[in-house]
Amino acid sequence: MEKLIAAIPFYTILTEEEKMFLSQNCSIVDFDSREALFKQGSFAANIYFVLEGYCKMTYQSGNKKKIVYIAREGEIIGKDYILMEHYPYSTHSLTTSKLMVIPKNLFRKICELNNSFYLKISNKLELKLQETMEWLINLSFKNVEGAMAMFILKFCNKNFKDIGLSRTEIAEIIGYSRESIIHTLTKFEREKLIKTKGKNIIIKDIEKLKEIIKYG
User: Count of CB atoms within 10 A of residue 125's CB?
Assistant: First the structure.
C-alpha cells in the first residue's frame, strides 16, 4: 500500500503524519473496463488517483455527450471539484484500471495543512487544464478531417497505448458523428495515412496528418 501511495504527485512534500493519515484512510480499488466511478450530478465524495489504466470524463447536456478528458496513469481525478457538492461530469474506466480512492474531505484537509503540497498539485493541474482547453478550442475550429487528424496525433501513440476507444467515443471527443468518423478513417486508410486494426489506429504518415491539421 505504501509503495502505491508514494506514486501520488509530490508525495515527498507530505509530513510523516500526513502520509500515515493518507495511508490509513484511502483504499485501492480495481475497476473493470467501462465501469462507472461516479455519475454527473451525484454527491462528490472522493478524489481518485489513477495507478493503472485509463478513465474518461464525460459531460452530458440533454442527449448530447462530450468526453472532455482522458486521465491516465499518474493523474488525479477530482481536484477541480474539491469545493463542490456534486460531480460536474461522469467518469468511467476505459480499460481494466486500478485507482486509489481518497475521501474528498481528507484530501482537502491535507491541502489545508500543507500549503506547499496544495500549491504544487494545483499548479500541475492548472497546466494540464490549460493544455486541455487549448486543444479543445483548436479542435472546435477544425473540419472533420482536421479534427480526426488532431485526435490521431494526440491519442494514437505510446502515451495512450491499448486505450481501445470505440468509434462512438472518438465521436464524443471530437464532436462529429460516428458515421463521419468511420468515413474519415476509411479515407485516411485508403490514402495510407493510417492503418486500423480493430479499435487500434496506427500512424503511417505523420507529416501528412500534420498538414491536414494545419489546413483542415
Answer: 16
Query: Sign of the C-alpha dihedral, residues 127, 3, 91, 87?
Result: negative
Q: C-alpha cell of 165?
A: 476507444
- This prediction's pTM: 0.88
**Across the strands, what pairs with 52?**
98
Give the DSSP H/E element, type plus range, for residue 90: strand 90-93
Spell out the residues 6+ positions from residue 214 whose beta carbon is closer than 8 angstroms to its own. Answer: none
Residue 80's pLDDT is what? 74
Residue 79 has pLDDT above 90, yes or no: no
Q: What is the pLDDT of residues 111-125, one digit of tens each?
A: 999 999 989 988 888
173-195 pLDDT, tens per residue? 999 999 999 999 999 999 999 99
Provide CATH code, domain 2-124: 2.60.120.10
d(CA 189, CA 71): 28
CA distance 97 to 164: 13
The domain 142-215 having CATH identifier 3.90.79.10: the answer here is: no
Q: What is the pLDDT of residues 3-16, one digit of tens each?
A: 777 788 788 889 98
Contacts (Cβ under 8 Å, ≥6 apart) of 216: 142, 143, 145, 146, 147, 149
Q: How far apart are CA 208 and CA 206, in angstroms?
A: 6
* Domain-wise residue ranges, the chain: 2-124, 142-215
Rounded Cα distance between 84 and 110, Å, is: 17
